[in-house]
Automatic annotation (TrEMBL):
InterPro entries: Aldolase_TIM, FAD/NAD-bd_sf, FAD/NAD-binding_dom, NADH:flavin_oxidoreductase, OxRdtase_FMN_N. Residues 376-636 form the FAD/NAD(P)-binding domain. Keywords: Flavoprotein, FMN, Iron, Iron-sulfur, Metal-binding, Oxidoreductase. In the N-terminal section; belongs to the NADH:flavin oxidoreductase/NADH oxidase family. GO terms for molecular function: 2,4-dienoyl-CoA reductase (NADPH) activity; FMN binding; iron-sulfur cluster binding; metal ion binding. The keyword Iron-sulfur applies. The lineage of its organism: Bacteria, Pseudomonadati, Pseudomonadota, Gammaproteobacteria, Alteromonadales. This is NADPH-dependent 2,4-dienoyl-CoA reductase. Pfam families: Oxidored_FMN, Pyr_redox_2. Gene3D superfamilies: Aldolase class I (3.20.20.70), FAD/NAD(P)-binding domain (3.50.50.60), NAD(P)-binding Rossmann-like Domain (3.40.50.720). It comes from Parashewanella curva. Coiled coil: none annotated.
Length: 670
């Protein structure tokens, strides 16, 4: 077997997990939708059929105050059991186990009934929490135990008690948020009392043959977080209290350190789980940015953990485990850590899905059944939209010929993957190529589609993408001016002083490309040092007293026409990371810019009526793009049946999420 450690059963004493793969908790948004639990049942069923050993659901509140927002999911009454049984019955058609996560958000709750150990407002919430009284704390403990009991009645094999990420239990544990002077605060033992009484109460109520996972914050990444000695002590107390498994929690939501974004190196935090090995005897779970079976196997083989938790990889591919067990990892649709359709959607209160797998959380709505009328289809352009349409249409039995004028597939992905921190895009291209081979799609590279000669098709799908927008700038032909596409494709040597025209996502990517060597973003040690994470854990929260201050010598200006915050439309959960990187390297941003001309003196601009010359060596044009649709007009004039998807249909800001979904949705009905 290719991954022997991954597929070794794990004996928990009273039950056995068939492998070492835990599907980590993800709130999908279906929990709150009408009919959402029917959709959730299919979502979890397909992951169970895909081979996962243990599933943990999205967080469910034990009471109203613990809800993430007013209408978020809660399990506190028997009448709520029937919808949960839809999930457990579906999963238990297989030999997969499933646990429900109990999540009390504490001061992170986005409503006026938020509660916490002390009346301290979270920086990421608009609501100041109410301080829990002693009686209220006791009531909350009972609510946790009641929630676990109801989960057992609903058929769950266990629960995960959420004790990390800065939620309520974590808020009690940390000095940062617990300023109490009673038996629930002060000493470390008192601050851990809530966590331990919850676990002890669940174990006493539900007996010995019920899985209790505790999500332990092993690395808070905030000031006044837990020390390493405290992490060890709490882990030992939790083992004594009766936990079955300890899962690793990394970072609070308010921490200004990325923990799961694409730019985070793979398995960047498995070292902290490894530090706890030997301190307790219960199984330990490593987590965060584990997205391939190779990475998971190495963590287990090296003894860093007893299980691996992967969450978003199961949005990307429900059959991840089966494909790994079959020895076909090349067929896995790999999570690229982009956050665009999962976490961004979750924090915008939208249904979660996946950029590379638009069917995620749409399992009952987006399917690719065999066509009763197979067609011969020409797909023009092998960017994200064209690739997605081609593989889904081929799955339905259509005969697809995929035309690509360039020497490789990928379109804008081929540019994105050259940006440091976005190397994961390579995996998506690898996946598409493997599917093209498996489905016998006729891929014609270096072939520009000729409408005059390619006549033998029932349908024409135009996915020709975008081209850079031309801007009316005097001197744009100057040797110092270069487009972002040419910069990424040809990678010429450019100067130390650079102006970037356009501060959208592409502008940020280009700034990062110019500032950060790939070798540094891919190196785990360098990355941890850059973000001030101390593997020796000498300070509370695992933060370095002084972090890496390696600054590039380049001077970069990031310019935009609009007089608004730079990076305003970047991803909700990743935009702050990009802004932090630019600030770290002293990038100068300017808004409300009018561009006048380029000459040997540099870039001439005007801001608020004041003229200025930026004495730069190079100017990179990132001023947007326009749809590449000339061919569609020609095909329509010839009377061909043409449909347009991706950037060719709508340029805007480059949006692979939209492009792949359009390709999938069209393939499902064509």
């Amino acid at each position: 077997m290719q991954y022997p450690q991954l597929f070794k059963p794990l004996d928990l004493g009273f039950t056995t997990l068939k492998n070492r793969v835990l599907m980590g908790s993800m709130h999908t948004g279906l929990e709150e939708q009408k009919g959402g639990f029917e959709k959730l049942a299919q979502f979890y069923k397909e992951r169970a059929e895909g081979g996962v050993g243990l599933i943990v659901t999205g967080g469910i509140a034990p009471n109203f105050c613990g809800r993430a927002y007013p209408y978020a999911a809660e399990l506190s009454n028997g009448f709520q059991l029937s919808k949960h049984r839809l999930i457990t019955d579906a999963v238990h058609e297989t030999d997969t186990k499933i646990c429900m996560q109990i999540l009390h958000t504490g001061r992170y709750a986005y409503h006026p009934f938020a509660v916490a150990p002390s009346r301290i407002k979270a920086p990421i919430s608009r609501f100041t929490p109410w301080k829990l009284t002693k009686r209220w704390i006791r009531s909350t403990i009972k609510d946790f135990i009641n929630c676990a009991s109801l989960a057992q009645q609903a058929g769950y094999d266990g629960v995960e008690v959420m004790g990390s990420e800065g939620y309520l239990i974590n808020q009690f544990i940390s000095k940062k948020t617990n300023k109490r002077d009673d038996e629930w605060g002060g000493s470390f033992e008192n601050r851990c009392r809530l966590a331990l009484e919850i676990v002890k109460g669940i174990r006493a109520k539900l007996g010995t043959e019920f899985i209790i996972i505790f999500r332990l914050s092993m690395l808070d990444l905030v000031e006044e977080g837990s020390t390493w000695d405290e992490v060890i002590q709490l882990a030992k107390w939790l083992e004594e209290a009766g936990v079955t498994i300890i899962n690793t929690g990394i970072g609070w939501h308010e921490a200004r350190i990325p923990t799961i974004a694409s730019s985070v190196p793979r398995a960047a935090f498995s070292w902290v789980t490894a530090k706890l090995k030997g301190e307790v005897t219960v199984p330990l779970v490593a987590t965060n940015r584990i997205n391939t079976p190779e990475v998971a196997e190495e963590i287990l083989k090296s003894g860093q953990a007893d299980m691996v938790s992967m969450a978003r990889p199961f949005l990307a591919d429900a059959d991840f485990v089966n494909k790994a067990e079959a020895g076909t990892p090349e067929l896995i649709n790999t999570c690229i850590g982009c956050n665009q359709a999962c976490l961004d959607h979750a924090f915008e209160l939208k249904r979660v899905t996946c950029l590379v797998n638009p069917r995620a959380c749409f399992e009952t709505e987006l399917n690719f059944e065999s066509s009763s009328n197979p067609k011969r289809i020409a797909v023009i352009g092998a960017g994200p939209a064209g690739l997605a349409f081609s593989i889904y249409a081929a799955q339905r039995g259509h005969k697809v010929v995929l035309f690509e004028a360039n020497k490789e597939v990928g379109g804008q992905f081929n540019l994105a993957r050259k940006v440091p921190g976005k190397e994961e895009f390579n995996e998506t291209i690898r996946y598409f190529l493997a599917q093209i081979e498996k489905l016998n799609i006729d891929l014609r590279l270096n072939t520009r589609f000729n409408p005059e000669t390619e006549l033998d098709f029932d349908k024409y799908i135009l996915a020709s993408g975008v081209k850079p927008r031309d801007i009316p700038l005097e001197g744009i032909e100057h040797s110092s001016v270069i487009s972002y596409q040419k910069l990424l494709i040809e990678q010429p040597t450019i100067g130390e002083r650079i102006a970037i025209i356009g501060a959208g996502g592409i502008g940020f990517d280009i700034a990062h490309y110019l500032l950060e060597p790939k070798s540094k973003t891919q190196n785990k040690e360098s990355w941890l040092a850059r973000w001030g994470i101390d593997q020796n854990y000498r300070s509370a929260g695992g933060l370095m007293v002084e972090n890496d201050t390696d600054i590039t010598p380049k001077q970069i200006y990031l310019l935009q026409r609009k007089n608004e915050k730079v990076g305003k439309n970047l991803g909700k959960t990743t935009g702050w990371i990009h802004r932090s990187e630019l600030k770290h390297h002293n990038v100068i941003t300017k808004t409300g810019v009018s561009y006048k001309r380029v000459d040997d003196n540099g870039l001439h601009i005007t801001i608020n009526g004041v003229d200025e010359v930026l004495a730069v060596d190079n100017i990179v044009i990132c001023a947007g793009q326009v749809s590449n649709i000339e061919l569609s007009q020609q095909l329509k004039k010839m009377g061909r049946d043409v449909q347009i998807i991706g950037g060719a249909a709508e340029a805007g800001e480059l949006d692979a999420k939209r492009a792949i979904r359009q390709g999938a949705e069209l393939a499902a009905v064509i």
